[in-house]
Write a structure and sequence with these properties.
Length: about 220
């Protein structure tokens, strides 16, 4: 959505896909918006200014900066999707949440919890069985392919295998296909997660329609 500048062409096409899907189904969709390029740029700026500071307070600040970027992005998406989205952006997935439209938009919550975790909490709240994680990663790999040339793409992976890949500790700004805290909760709930390339809009259309798609299925069934 915002790799550098706001990708208005992408947002326009994405809105069309959601409109077409919802016209032909009774589904409701919860969209949890990440921080994208702005979050990383502001977190990096903070790190450059307070060079050498890597204590707990620094991680807390970096997390808050990233959260604020998600909220700005989410406000844009909420208004772009009007009238499908009629409710305020959700900041707290555990609080009271009005859901009167066809689409609910959520953003970051508080330090220690990524937008992946928010998606899992909303799936739990609304008894959804699947979370679709659209990012700049087309599939999950056995390791980071930027670091390990032997890394292999996966069509499917169990929760135990996936936890071995991503570890157990959440780090603000860390680029993972699905964050470790969210992974633990999703595994406990028996959720399925689909990891796919968000820029591939026809692939997103196929996912929503329940057709074959390019990506990785994460889960135990």
């Amino acid at each position: 959505m915002v790799p550098d500048e706001v990708d208005t062409e992408f947002l326009t096409a994405f809105r069309t896909i959601l409109q077409e899907h919802l016209e032909g189904s009774s589904d409701r969709l919860a969209l949890v918006i990440g921080g994208g390029g702005p979050a990383r740029r502001y977190q990096n700026a903070y790190g450059a200014i307070v060079t050498g500071r890597h204590d707990r307070d620094s991680a807390f600040v970096r997390d808050w900066i990233g959260i604020m970027a998600t909220r700005l992005n989410a406000e844009l998406v909420r208004h772009v999707l009007d009238p499908l989205c009629q409710d305020p952006v959700v900041y707290d997935p555990t609080g009271e949440i009005p859901f009167t439209g066809r689409v609910l938009v959520a953003a970051g919550w508080k330090p220690g919890f990524s937008t992946d975790f928010i998606a899992v909490k909303l799936a739990e709240r609304y008894n959804a069985d699947t979370v679709v994680n659209l990012s700049n990663i087309a599939r999950v790999y056995t390791a980071d392919p930027r670091v390990d040339p032997q890394a292999q793409p996966l069509d499917s992976v169990s929760w135990a295998e996936f936890r071995a890949i991503v570890g157990d500790e959440w780090t603000p700004g860390k680029n993972l296909p699905f964050d470790p805290v969210a992974t633990r909760r999703a595994a406990e709930l028996g959720l399925k997660v689909i990891a796919a390339d968000g820029k591939n809009l026809e692939n997103t259309r196929a996912i929503l329609a329940g057709r074959e798609f390019m990506g990785t299925r994460i889960g135990d069934s």
